[in-house]
Amino acid sequence: MNEQEARRLLQLDEQADFAAVRQQYRRLMMQYHPDAAGAENEAALEMAKRLNEAYRLLKLAALTSPEPGERKGRKTGAEKRSKTRTTILRQNRKAYCSRDLYVASPLHEDLPPMRVARGRFYWDPDVEDFRLFLRSVYRECNDLLEELERKHGYYSRSELPRPALHDRCIQKLLHLLAQEWIDPPAALVQLCREKQAGPPFHVEGTVAFSSANRTPSAEEMRIWRDIPEGAVLLPQLSDMRLLVWNETGYRFGHVFFDEDYWYYIVIPLLLQEAARVKITVKKKLAMSQLSAGKAMLALDLQLSHTEKKFHLQTERINEEISGLLHRYESKAL
Question: d(Cα 25, Cα 62) in Å, to the nearest integer?
């Protein structure tokens, strides 16, 4: 598929900008998505696949096309990279550092992703696959630590005196930097817009029965067996995790989201009280294996905005990053 064929599939002319491409893609996917057309509708499935291919191609074209006013003639690679049309993406200008932006290859999904730009870009679900976003963040974390390590004469992991500290620092940095490049209110709307009118916005999660290293009581087993579908559970935030309880004070456990990006969206919104959540039991799963510790509750989280406005606390996060890097340098190097 070429760009002209992609525009024809999306029913767009040559003058349509990326905003129009995105809007039309969403409109058509609401018609052909398996959730709307049915998983057995093979024609709709094929159309959805072709729409995804067309959107991926036009997205890459929008990101790599030259900016208006760029000089004509042959250009160096550096010039091409610096002139990509990144104006379609928002940036957090106060973020600790820049990052690379990757998109999937338009030729085949198994080919390596393409680096198309560098900047302080917010994650845009319509433009960047979350796995590629995490890859980008991880590389920046690694670069930050390697810069410190080279400063002290260490040029490979095998030379590090305490490599385990390197790994733990990477994990903490990844969590902090990802927060700077995700705008929870905007991402929530974007991710839910295709399937939902919203608000409230519906997010799927699960809570699992865990009997590890203990014998569950008969009362605990009864609570899990007797809870009805549609029951409302009470939320509690604890150490960047969302716990759920029943009205009698029994703790079911912490919520696992079906996609990792929800941790960076739902938790920050609730922490700042910029959203409220109603959690209901959607379905009971594997209850016959409750005694084996394999039962789960599928949850529906209904999120709605409050009057409080969400504020991305970039300055505070930057201070945490600086402190973390200083401690790593003093303790591990």
Answer: 14
